[in-house]
Write a structure and sequence with these properties.
Elements: H1 3-30, H2 40-48, H3 51-71, H4 76-79, H5 85-98, H6 104-121
């Protein structure tokens, strides 16, 4: 895999991870909710205009374009497993941004992900 292909994959993964984090920040801002017939419009409007959610959706749109560019250069059997890097990014970012737990079991799992991605990417 050349540098451009890797950069496209990593950019797509990071944009996807950013989208998840922004969506979580947006739902934190809106608060927990349930959709019922009487609140679909008010909750839908809150979600539709929450800046973090809009940013997350924007990241998704850009990540799809970047991902398509990556797939045009790299076999899907190599590119798709690289999405696992997003879990690592999100777990660490969620620890710092949202105070989510990052216990030993998760760290061990992250280690396995790193080894797996390295094995898949290795020529």
């Amino acid at each position: 895999m050349n540098a451009v292909s890797f950069a496209l994959i990593l950019t797509g993964v990071l944009l996807n991870a950013a989208a998840q984090l922004l969506l979580k920040a947006g739902t934190n801002a809106v608060g927990q909710f349930d959709f019922h017939l009487d609140n679909v419009l008010p909750i839908g409007m809150k979600l539709a205009f929450e800046p973090h959610i809009l940013g997350g959706l924007g990241c998704y749109v850009i990540s799809v374009v970047v991902w398509i560019m990556a797939l045009s250069r790299v076999p899907v059997s190599v590119a798709y497993p690289m999405l696992s890097i997003g879990y690592i990014v999100n777990a660490v970012a969620a620890y710092f941004w949202f105070g989510e737990a990052l216990a030993g079991q998760k760290l061990l799992g992250i280690g396995f992900i790193i080894i797996g991605v390295w094995l898949v990417a290795k020529p």
